Amino acid sequence: MVESEDVQSEDKVSELIRKSAAGDRTARDRLFAHYRPRLSRMVRLRLNRLVQGRVDESDIVQEASLEAARRLDEYLADPVQPFYLWLRHIAGRKLIDVHRRQLGAQRRDAARELSLHKGPLPAADSASLAAQLLGKLSSPSQAASRAETRLKVQEVLNGMDSLDREILALRHFEQMTNAEVAETLEMSESSASSRYLRALKQLKEEFQRIPGIL
């Protein structure tokens, strides 16, 4: 069922791109709307904790969408990468600009970036990852010690290889396919898949040492 839905989604996007290239403005609006939830997840995951509360993630997504709309004809004339990855890259650059403006002198230590996929992109924030993992994995009985548990989860995430942590973020929280991850991180699909499985195994083993997580 999931695979069928994925195929239908790909077909829908392909049709919207085809119509957009033909000048259909409604199709262009629908194309950007289709990816807005995915972009919002990406920004939420990578928006530095020191900036949250000062910047609305929807504003970053809106800025990225407006720039992408201005550059859409340029992309359609030479689509060198899948549309979503192109759109995500624009959003990532907007996010970096926000970090630079908001963090100022703190940027070097606080705004970590990964030099991957045609330039740097903010690394997934371990605190945001931990919060989302706890939201899915912790039981109600963990509520009293949730803050302590979150710190332990952050320690696990920070102790992982940065690329493995990034692959987990891309697959689980940005909900990318293995092919999208491979292109984003500029590696083969087989390498992306093997690193993902290894990282997932490591994460589960580490979580077994934290009471109540699994």
Structure commentary:
Helix content is 71%, strand content 3%. It is mainly alpha-helical. It has 2 domains: 1-123, Orthogonal Bundle (Rna Polymerase Sigma Factor, Chain: A); 124-214, Winged helix-like DNA-binding domain superfamily/Winged helix DNA-binding domain (Arc Repressor Mutant, subunit A), CATH 1.10.10. A hairpin with a 4-residue loop joins β1 and β2. The protein is globular. Mean pLDDT is 82; it is low at 1-5, 107-111 and 114-119.
Q: What's the mean pLDDT score? A: 82
What's the total helix number? Answer: 10
| Stretches with pLDDT under 50, minimum 5 residues | 1-5, 107-111, 114-119
The radius of gyration is: 18 Å
- Percent range for β-strand residues: under 5%
In one word, what is the shape?
A: globular
Give the proportion of residues in helices: over 70%
**How many domains, as an integer?**
2
Distance, first to last CA: 27 Å
Known CATH architecture of the largest domain:
Orthogonal Bundle
How many β-strands, per DSSP? 2
Please identify which CATH superfamily of the largest domain we are dealing with. Answer: RNA polymerase sigma factor, region 2, helix turn helix motif
Largest sheet: 2 strands, antiparallel
- Strand adjacency order, main sheet: 1-2
Structural class: mainly alpha
Q: Which series of helices and strands comes N to C?
A: HHHHHEEHHHHH
CATH class of the largest domain equals: Mainly Alpha
CATH structural fold name of the largest domain: Rna Polymerase Sigma Factor, Chain: A
